[in-house]
Amino acid sequence: MSQQGLLFGAFFGCLAIILGAFGAHLLKKKLNIEQLQSFETGVKYQMYHAIVLLILGFQLNSEIPIDRYIIHAFIIGVFLFSFSIYGLVISSVNNKKLRFLGPITPLGGLFLVAGWALLFYKFVILF
């Protein structure tokens, strides 16, 4: 069992609900359609990976290095991908877009891809 996977899965899931409601109710009036869609993309990816982390948290063993790498890749990926999108969108509301976050989003995406690739590799070596 991976406690980190379970803890971050639950945390990211809870936060995705809060941020989704924040976007739907408070930001909806302040954002244009494109900004709102970007924000929703961050929330969706966060929730998808929260669910994955919860499932993997019960299945993976934190004593095995590849299992730790998978969990860490998903945690870092969600943080960099989704939270950089939130920062970009919210900062653009005040016309003070934090442009330095732009390159962080694809880096987060690469961590998410790495997590999935490592999970695939784990399955290949198991079967």
Structural features, described:
The protein is an all-alpha fold. The protein is built from four helices and no strands. Helix 1 packs antiparallel against helix 2 and helix 2 runs antiparallel to helix 3. It is elongated.
Number of domains: 1
Question: Rough shape?
Answer: elongated
Instruction: Give the SSE order as H and E letters.
Output: HHHH
Strand portion: under 5%
- In DSSP terms (H or I, runs of 4 or more residues), the helix count works out at 4
The CA-CA distance between the termini, in Å, is 20 Å
Q: What is the assembly state of the chains in this entry?
A: single chain
Rg is: 16 Å
- The count of DSSP E runs of length 2 or more, i.e. the number of strands, is 0
Helix/strand/pairing category? mainly alpha
Biggest sheet character: none
Poorly predicted ranges? none
Q: What's the overall average pLDDT, rounded?
A: 94
User: How much helix is in the residues?
Assistant: over 70%
Protein name: DUF423 domain-containing protein
Keywords: Membrane, Transmembrane, Transmembrane helix
GO cellular component, one term: plasma membrane
Membrane topology: Multi-pass membrane protein
